[in-house]
What we know:
The complex is a heterodimer. By secondary structure, chain A is α/β, with parallel strands linked by helices.
Amino acid sequence: xxxxxxxxxxxxxxxxxxxxxxxxxxxxxxxxxxxxxxxxxxxxxxxxxxxxxxxxxxxxxxxxxxxxxxxxxxxxxxxxxxxxxxxxxxxxxxxxxxxxxxxxxxxxxxxxxxxxxxxxxxxxxxxxxxxxxxxxxxxxx
Amino acid sequence: xxxxxxxxxxxxxxxxxxxxxxxxxxxxxxxxxxxxxxxxxxxxxxxxxxxxxxxxxxxxxxxxxxxxxxxxxxxxxxxxxxxxxxxxxxxxxxxxxxxxxxxxxxxxxxxxxxxxxxxxxxxxxxxxxxxxxxxx
Lengths: 141, 136
């Protein structure tokens, strides 16, 4: 796990992107924040980049390649899987069917996006601090 | 935002169990802790389908069935394999960390020797999971 690597946010809603951008700016983490508007663009970046990201926050309902499909593709890709990048769903709703489907794809968290700015800031802080404390194998290509 | 958790704590050291309980008692949510003192004991507890933990907090070095053996068994159990498992151990050995992530864990947290760091790591882990959505 590369704790100084970029934090990847896959989110098609531009308002949500803006809120998240403000939260990360306020929290002042040194990680670069990279947004993608759909799963396909994110997958292309993840398979091409030489940089190992720190965490992936993914919405579920997105155009082209949705969050579940993207998670499955990352999990099936040996090169990406061994990087052990924490993959979290960060969704507006948590329908039981989605939660069941998500956990079957071996993810590391399923969060509902809070509606208030302060709750959003608190949850992002909780998530980042947990993964900063976790250890993982160093990825050696 | 923070919800009480049902936690299966798999830990053979009685002092560690007391420490874990103490930290959680001081947190705002009332978490339920089910205790198993080794991997085999945890499997026996999970044999009862009415026991449905949200997460499993797993030590590695234990008698009878150790943490990695337990992890392998649970990942082959269709009914239990999707429960998030968090390793909570003093072992920072690369081989064990690598093996745990390869089999599938939702975090690997070290138990620091300094008590203040132990509290911080434990609280961080519990806060993270108590914000999560789980399968009902």
